[in-house]
Design a protein that fits this description.
The complex is a heterodimer.
Chain A: E1 2-4, H1 7-19, H2 22-25, H3 33-53, E2 94-98, E3 104-106, H4 108-112, E4 116-124, E5 130-139, H5 140-146, E6 155-160, E7 165-169, H6 170-173, E8 179-184, E9 187-188, E10 198-200, E11 213-219
Parallel strand pairs in A: 2-11
Antiparallel strand pairs in A: 2-3, 4-5, 5-8, 6-7, 6-11, 8-9, 8-10
Chain B: E1 9-13, E2 20-25, H1 29-54, H2 81-108, H3 112-115, H4 122-134, H5 147-171, H6 177-183, H7 186-214, H8 216-224, E3 226-228
Antiparallel strand pairs in B: 1-2, 2-3
Helix pairs in contact in B: 1-2, 5-6, 5-7, 7-8
The chains are: A alpha+beta, B mainly alpha.
Amino acid sequence: MEEHIDEKRAKAIRRREILKLTPVVLLGAFAVPSFQEVLLKEGLAFHDWASAKLFRRGHLAPTFSDAEVVSFEKFPINDYDVDDPGVDLDAWKLKVTGDVTQPGEYSLAQIQALPRQRQNTKHICVEGWDVIGRFGGARLADFLNLVGANPRARFLYVECADDYYSSLDMETARHPQTLLCYEMYDRPLTREHGAPVRLSIPTKIGYKNVKYLTRIHVTDVLTKQGYWEDQGYSSYYGL
Amino acid sequence: MSAAVPERILTWEAKKSGAQVLAAYEHPFLVRLCHWTNSVALLVLIASGLRIFRAFPSFGPKIPQHDLINIPKQLTLGGWLGGALQWHFTFLWIYMATGLIYVLYEIFSRNYRQVLFMPRDIRGVWPMARHYFFFSPRPELNEPYNPLQKLAYTSAILLGVLSVLTGIVLYRPVQFSWLAVLMGGFHLARIWHFCVMVAFLLFIGGHLVMVLLHGWNNFVSMVSGWKNDPEYLR
């Protein structure tokens, strides 16, 4: 439909339409240093919240045939500082603290007494590389039951021999493929791969698959999220 | 189904020259809002994506690692991998939301008839390309977008969909394992995601060149919604 108006009104209409776009300018707040940090933190928090909603307890990560597994030599060794923090393997115990009925120190033999699970799964690094490896160990869920972890606790905080630390939501910790891993390629973990016990979590990004585990802590409140997480990495990062 | 032309038309008399001016309302508010917000989001995603790629600039194995390119830091956003991921994870929502709002709006307002590339547009592509690249005469146009434009804009929407699907596989290869299988796995999805980015760079380059060469009127109309004296209404 065609409408005849005067020029002033035509200009006013145009001006109004341009002004309507001002919300786009709000994106400029991301360029202001003092707002940027807060906005990105909130953005990441929203992203993590939405990501957690997508997690399905019973949905298994794909597993692979033995032929698809990369050779042991080609399984990367990633650390934030040292390959070998010098764990005394004979004296090693896993400390269990927090909201559990049986806190204390657990030996490797106690972990190995739990049903052993062996799986070929994909390990994906936040950097972008991925590798299929073979992992063996006890289900973390079984161990949490053994120590009497409160089934309603929300988080698992984990510490390592090299001062690395991280955290997991309890749904992921109790996922059937989440392992207290003491074997790779059917052999005891080597020092570089986290001896004597590491986490293998096929539903989480690499930096949550911590090595040289020394303590797990069951809690509802995380005061620290993780070595990388506290520097700005996603604290959820579920695959 | 015929091609659509804008329905709101205004005419007025220019005070200075006394000439009759005719203007068409080409881009409704939501289209403009989504266009500009999405443009910013796409640029942020590309720049932060390049920073993420810098962390492992290879499509091969980790051992041995062969870097493909060293992307200059100045072209990237985020400062470090963690920072770039924060930008990427924040703006992908803005990108998806504006993309989705745009597509839904186009469908329900039936505005898509202006811009969606249809089989009947195929025969118009070559004459238009000949005009742009070989300076042959410009084919007459009786609708807002020429066939080549429709092809470009429709492809951009497809790229948008692909960028999201490949991105989902990169971020959630386990929860969306069926989609990962469709893409040929995490490893290939990373390559597709990168290819989509390159295709977007080509689109953006072409789009900007066309706007600079021919499109001042089009630029104004994407800002104000109104285009003066459009060719298709002459």
